[in-house]
Amino acid sequence: MKVAILSFYSGILDRGVEAFVYELSNRLVSFGYRITVYQTGPAMKGSKYKTVTVPIKVHFSSEGLLAAGINQVKDILAGREFAVKSLALIDPDTQIIIPTNNRWQGILSKFWATRHHAKMIISGHGGPGIDERIALWSFPDVFVPLSNFQRDWARAANPFLKRLIKIPNGVDVEKFSLKTKPLEIDLPRPIVLCVGAMWPWMKRQDLLIKAMGQLSSGSLLLVGDGEGKGLLQKLGNTHLKGRFKIISLPYDQMPKVYTACDVFTYPTSSWEAFGIVLLEAMASGLPVVANDDPIRREIVGDAGLFVDPTNTAAYARVLEKALNTNWGDKPRRQAAKFSWDKIAKQYDLCFHFVA
Fold this sequence. Notes:
By secondary structure, the protein is α/β, with parallel strands linked by helices.
């Protein structure tokens, strides 16, 4: 079966959607699928699937909220160009098409699928919001919510959509494990880790910095990049002098980061669709302190604690509690429920259901 996947940022950025495309595609190839990924960047190291690079400029370099807004508008326009060029390159006998970045991709992919008698599947990486509503009203043959909460939201957002099949994101439990040699980090222990794009208006690392500032010991390590990096660096230097760092590493180096730390925390906004980094942290044996919302509770289960990050004092107390608790193998056991091998089998069933 031929499957085409459109992933605008693959080969350029290493985030949740890009990890989804890489990990799922590699496993589907082993099932006998002929996978082609259309992306703006070069082929990713270790990819077993066919990569077609569609050279479109990606905008993400400037600092600040205004720059982030301008870059988003530019990328919406670039996304349309990417979708048009990618769709023109897809083999007409492709049976399944998966647009991963919504908006223009979903709308134009639906036209392509209808014309070529193919099926369109959309996985809900955008989270509840305008992008997801556009995806739902493009009437994919299957919409794949990543959580029970998102499934219920999608049903209400488009009650006329026929097929919703919940499949969460996954994690490679061999790549992310306790066996990985830790990265050497020049920070006082214990170390609290947060991984994600430097977008405090969504990921809310600023709330984490303020909470960590209330603890008398322990350090904070932020890993990622983005338009808010400068702002977060200044805030960290103010609240956590000598106990704070921001670093950015290639994705294949991330397992070493997790095993070098003691607790993982993720104060992201409630409307984020998932958070693969939560699974990576738990697979590496780290307990989690997460935003208290239905999606994060479904992912983390009993392998962590939950808090409203806007309550600085409460956030600090919960971080301290997580650091002082013996979590045993709870994080690893929770992560194992989301193994990419299990997730790939669910997509295999989904494909055969609609093909």
